[in-house]
Amino acid sequence: MPTWEYAPAPEARETARLRESYGMFVDGEFTDGSGAGSLKTVNPASEEVLAEVAVASKSDVDRAVAAARRAYQTVWAPMPGRNRAKYLFRIARLIQERSRELAVLESLDNGKPIKESRDVDVPLAAAHFFYYAGWADKLPYAGLGPDPRPLGVAGQVIPWNFPLLMAAWKLAPALAAGNTCVLKPAETTPLSALVLAEICQQAELPPGVVNVLPGAGETGAAVVAHPDVDKVAFTGSTEVGKQIQRIVAGTRKRLTLELGGKAANVIFDDAALDQAVEGIVNGIFFNQGHVCCAGSRLLVQESVYDELLDKLKRRLGTLRLGDPLDKNTDIGAINSAAQLARIRELSETGEAEGAQRWSPACPLPDRGFWFPPTVFTGVSQAHRIAREEIFGPVLSVLTFRTPAEAVEKANNTPYGLSAGIWTEKGSRILWTAQRLRAGVVWANTFNRFDPSSPFGGYKESGFGREGGRHGLSAYLADDDTVQLGGGS
Ligand code: NAD
Ligand code: MG
To answer: Which of 160, 162, 273, 313 is deepest in the core (most CB within 10 A)?
Structure first.
């Protein structure tokens, strides 16, 4: 195979318009808050500090929730849906206008390759606002009754793997439905949510409708536990999801949880193998494998195992790992030292338990957090790397002989977020998809997202759906829960 030499093609860092420090966004204004301190967010590709960000304390949470309540009661819920739609369209267009800035900022703060932030994260974030803007004046036609009502104040906590996109997934449906929001971004990636707050200001969104509170778990816990929050939406680890469920239990708060996954990507012997290889690579190496619905368990039919593994290894040898801002980069940096330590620990366990580890020749940069694309073969169902979410560029390969065995192995997991099926036969796609306990099942593709398509899990992957009409129902009340007061 010819090898290609790529000249460096870096995107200009100045495009991000980084500032030395960022405040929190409360009641339409940026502020340092009550002075609870600050956090430093780093570029995981270089470990350089990018900016200092004010951390929200419990009293800042109080102020943000009070602002959100006021905005809910006085402007946002009473506003006709067609007018709310105008603000959402405006936000969507401003995301597009500032897309290059947002993409560079996201790659700097998160470590993801610029071609992903540019071509996936930012356009999908805009698409979510466009999509839900279209629903704002059509809520009576969403199939949720003739007069569905907003819930009130939504407390929303998001992770670091798709910082801007997760903010859009949370804010767009909530706002379209007439709720107001208090959003807490993840501590390692707060910057794009703060620029989104700036975009809300630019769009002249009424003060208090969106509030953004950076901070770590403590800030998140204060948002979730606040008695005047009506709805809690969380995306993150299953462990924290369970804690939140305990906090919310016994209150009137509504809850949706989008948690972890350990998805099976099932390759039948009649699949187009070259296409399947692209799907496998996209499934587990997209965003360094920091994807809750990543295809982290590859199930291959035995008769094509050797051929598929050869093709996969050859393809992995062509992936380019390095500077996230380079337009040729396929694999960027691991988001944090803590995440890198977890990936290393689980990979070492894989070897200790007897699986075979393989990575292509792949020099790693000296500074920053890096992990090469890694494949484990000889993995059995009992291995930790087949059961636990690694949340990194690590693929565990298992085999099967019959479709029934594939389904049994695919479902043998505490999670149930997504799955992939590769086969030429339409009937086999339907047979398999019906039997997989996963919220999203892709056929002959993987990791495809669209705002009109619902996304969410079974079992320990959580409950509730984001996206599509289903995503609206998480922010609209049944008649008996309609309220203008608090949630507890
Ligand atoms: P995490 O659960 O540690 O953190 C997620 C968010 O919750 C962060 O903003 C964090 O500050 C906050 N948080 C931490 N402790 C909290 C507490 N006690 N109360 C309230 N908030 C708290 O997870 P992470 O390491 O940031 O993200 C990785 C995990 O998220 C993975 O397990 C992944 O599968 C999952 N994830 C799921 C989806 C999905 O849509 N299902 C999407 C992205 C990530
Ligand atoms: Mg960062």
So the answer is: 162
**Closest ligand to 47 CA?**
2
In 105-173 the beta strands, taken as DSSP E runs, fall at 149-150, 153-157
Task: Choose the catalytic residue: 11, 258, 388, 460.
Answer: 258
Q: CB of 184 closer than 6 A to ligand 1?
A: yes
196's tokens: 């989104």
Active site residue 292: yes
Instruction: Tell me, using a 6 A CB cutoff, whether residue 243 lines ligand 1.
Output: yes
CATH node for 264-450: 3.40.309.10
Q: In the numeric block, which tokens belong to residue 166?
A: 């997760």
Calculate how far, in angstroms, residue 319's C-alpha sits from the geometric centre of ligand 2: 24
pTM over 0.90: yes
Work out whether strand 38-43 and strand 48-54 pair parallel, antiparallel, or are unpaired.
antiparallel
258 assigned to active site: yes
Q: Is residue 225 in contact with ligand 1, taking CB distance under 6 Å?
A: no
Residue ranges matching CATH 3.40.605.10 in the chain: 13-259+461-477
Which pLDDT does position 353 carry in this prediction? 97
Q: Is 237 in the pocket of ligand 1 (CB under 6 A)?
A: yes
- ∠ at Cα 338 (332, 339), nearest 5°? 45
**pLDDT given for residue 484 in this prediction:** 43
- Judge if the beta carbon of residue 114 lies within 6 A of ligand 1: no
Q: Answer whether 154 contacts ligand 1 (Cβ < 6 A).
A: no
pLDDT (average), residues 98-125 = 98
- Provide the CA 412 distance to its chain's centre, in angstroms: 24
State residue 158's pLDDT score. 98
**HEC states along 256-305?**
EEECCCCCEEEECCCCCHHHHHHHHHHHHHHHHHCCCCCCCEEEEEHHHH
How far, in Å, from the CA of 240 to the mean position of ligand 1?
7
Give CATH for domain 13-259+461-477.
3.40.605.10
CATH 3.40.309.10 residue ranges in the chain?
Answer: 264-450
What whole-number distance in Å separates Cα of residue 473 and Cα of residue 146? 13
> What is the sign of the dihedral through the CA atoms of 291, 293, 295 and 299?
positive
Res 245: pLDDT: 97
From the CA of 190, the nearest ligand is 2
Residue 183, amino acid: L
Specify the residue for token string 């086969």.
Answer: 423
E strand or H helix at 443, and its extent?
A: strand 440-443
Nearest CA to ligand 1 atom 13: 217
**Ligand approaching nearest to the C-alpha of 247:** 1
